[in-house]
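Intended use. Records like the one below are meant for learning the mapping from a protein sequence to its folded structure. Do not use them to infer anything beyond what is encoded.
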Amino acid sequence: MQRHEMKIDDRTLSYVDSGGSGRPLLALHGGLSEGLAFAGLAAHLGDAWRVIAPDQRGHGSSDRAPHHRREGYICDAVALLDHLGLEAPVALLGYSLGGLNAYHLAAAHPERVCALVGVDATVEIRPTTEGPLFDFLRTMRYTAPTREELLEAAGPVGARFVEQALRPLPSGDGWRLPFHPQDMLDSIEACRGDHWDAWLASTCPAVLIHGIHSQALRRDTADAMVARRPRTSYAPLNGDHFVPFTDPQGVHEAVGSFLATL
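Structure written out for the chain above:
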């Protein structure tokens, strides 16, 4: 996966690209993550697919953005497709936050998407950024003189998300998180709502990969998503919402099996 950059309104959008002549697969990571999370998937798919994975706005090596509403994420993805000259429809994959962005992108620009892969992406989101689940974001420091100080401030929960992804500051005199904690809280809040209309708006072939013990996507919601959207298959895995990290092989095989049907 080679890293590249493009500019959107003087803002840098960073992305990684496996290259080659395979069919393009645009892969959108989950919250608090980055495009390199799909390096294993790219290796699994091999030469048949060219995996392109942006660090979505405010994540990874991409710059912070004015807001984290859905239209901003979608505009960034379309700008990347245009930048790469990918005018023909591409396969689109998204996990969690990226899954929400993916099916909204397919709804807004159906002519750009030939297939949709949702990985534990739900349509009914009632997030709460209060309480222990997101307390670690409130105590994190965005920058610090050393990696050790950043990890200490993140605590044991936050450190799981950032330990391998900390960035040195451009000045060389410190380190930063791969996201700003307040941006992530804003992004989580912007996901709130009922997204059924967007999920049902596209008609391309789709698969919903579901961690059956997910904290984010209930089984009854997953069943309804598959039943109500035509041309949608279901791929259950024995895991929770973090199944791409706890069972990467299972996710890779489910994605590969679906893509092979196209």
